What we know:
The chain is built from 3 helices and 5 strands, in the order αβββαββα. It has helices spanning 5-10, 55-76, 123-133, and strands spanning 18-21, 25-29, 39-43, 80-84, 100-105.
Amino acid sequence: MNDCLFCKIINGDIPSAKVYEDQHSYAFLDIKPINAGHTLLVPKKHFANLYEMPDDVLANLTPTIKKLAIAIKKSVGADGINIGMNNDSAAGQLVFHAHIHIMPRFKNDGHEHWHGKPYQDGEIDNVAQKIKANL
């Protein structure tokens, strides 16, 4: 895509702090990190989000997620790692080239996890049935 920020980074048209590259993927440090070491892993081919990404591309990214998570945790001395992927604007996606966040976490870093809310009576079964129907 000609106007895609991440495609431009992959092609070298925009500089990045690259930490990893192979035939399928490119990983670089996020310029607005949750914590130092926050890395974005992107497929080299352009897909807007998870829904558009073919299964084989996703399968090629999975071992790289693990490899990067281990390296990041060790490199920055993190207490843990969050893996995240925002799909669609409502979920916080800002750049519409599929990307996976690998975020180092520290016990007292001040970032909170989302707050869950319990299902109402009978709602959990209804939602489960809807999901099953769409598989």
